[in-house]
Give the backbone structure.
Amino acid sequence: MRILTEIEDPYEVILKKMREYPNDIPIDENGKISEAFKEYIKIMFTPEEAEIAQHLEIKIVF
Amino acid sequence: MELPDYIKNRTWKDYLPEGITLEIDIPEDLSLIDLFEKGAKEYGDKVSIDYFGREFTFKEMDNLTRRLAQGLLKLGVKKGDVISLWLPNSPHFSICYFAALGLGTTLTAISPLFAGREMAYQIKDSGAKYLIMIDRFIKEFKKVEDQLALEKIIIVNVAGEIPDVPETTKIIHYNTLLEQNPETLTAFKVNINPKEDIAVIQYTGGTTGDPKGACLSHHNIVANILQMQQISNYMKEAYIKGDLVNICILPWYHIYGQTCELIQGPMTGGKGFIFPTFDIPRIIETIKEKKPNTLLGVPTMFIHLLNSPLSKDVDFSCLKYTNVGASAMPIEIAKEWERKTGFPLGEGYGLSETSPTVTNSPPWAKKKLGSCGVPVASTLCGIIDENLNFLPIGESGELVVAGPQVMVGYHNRPEENKKVFFEAGGFRWLRTGDFAKMDEEGYIFLIDRIKDMIKYKGHSVYPREIEEVLYEHPAIQECAVIGIKDPERGENIMAHIILKKEYKGKITEQEIIYWSREQMAAYKYPRIVKFVRSLPKSAVGKVLRRIIRDKEAKKAEKESSG
């Protein structure tokens, strides 16, 4: 049986997905996502909304 | 005037390997659109662009380009119109670029770093009727919108989303143009005369301060692509043993990025990883994961990549073909880069006026430290004195160039054209304004710039332009902007300022820096401001920047020696 040892924070999942998108999000020179932006995302999504939003795909449309 | 032997003989021909010739065939009837169409036909299903993991084949890029061209045609775009692109690197840039060229228009690409006023200058000077820009720049655009005589503005979102700017009779979304034109324009029917039709007005600067538009014909750019292809083909055969896989970090608004990245793709069938910004973590991650084999950049980019803590344990040995241009590469950095990749770093020299490459270190011959190489194929270089006399080999003077990549002339500047061109030995020569010498094997060593241009992180910064902005500050009576040597940035920007009496003691240097930052692009504003009592001037009252520069250099030397 596979033991789930680590559950990723849904906010981190959303941020990672946003980072892999051309419109991008603010990062520092070491590639770390800005703390202020992390706060902003927490304002944008309630914990319940983040749980759902983390599963949404962002696609480049052409 | 008779040309000296070193120009006619071109001694570097003695060590050209088999297959590399001194002269190459540059068909006079070949346009940039011919190259684009040839690429789509020849490499159809191969991947042309990788953009955040979304791959575009040559066929798909061709299809999107033709759909956009159809849309532009319906908007009224016609041969001879000037279209300005204010876009970062993206598939959209390529699609708009070739769609516009296919309709016989002239392009002028604007730096994504420009503030509204700088963008407005370029649009007005080039006579652009259409602007294609990204939605993020709308705030800057609005600041100057009423100054511009634009017929239509096309708004792009770099992720392909519907832009967050409402459409009007004048503003159209890029997405709308594509949606309304599901059928592609089957043929670019317009007749292009490659030698006469201007493909690009590339903005440079000048001693007068105002940026000037260098008119590059289709033939100019095609010639430079073919000249550079001699080098890239050699690298493919000798080192890469396959297709070029380019990590495209040069900005495409710059002619270096256009000729060596944007158009090289369709030309060689290579693939490019593209990013809208110079995003170091993403670039290093791509090197690590995707193993590109080609990277072209400016010295600052190499410095950042080497100095980033993220690159410490990353293997760069996939990068077999790397080349640096735009400003002189510090020797120590070049050595460090070669240690990191295990391959020689090529170094070139060019100008916006020469589409851009003039010289490149020949990968088939020895590399000379501090040299920007030998003239590329079908190119002549010489050194002249102030009376336009050619100097003997080894002597220092102004570098002049003749070749098919040399611009048609500056846009609407007949007086400037008279100054930069001269005829000799049956050739039309361009004066570069750069001080250089050539050795007996044809290697060129740049010594200094005759012009006062500052090279900040590879960007050309023109002091007069900065001074004009500074003069708008109410506290500034007089000023002079110079470049001072900086190991990381190439040169840093310093302003010497005389304050008006009533402001003395009431304003700080830092406040001037903050104010400047709001007025111009990030690479232009002065990082160092010094309040002074006087400025050195010539007999006619012209500020002598050279003297200030020398003074600052001596001061820096004294400080560093303790």
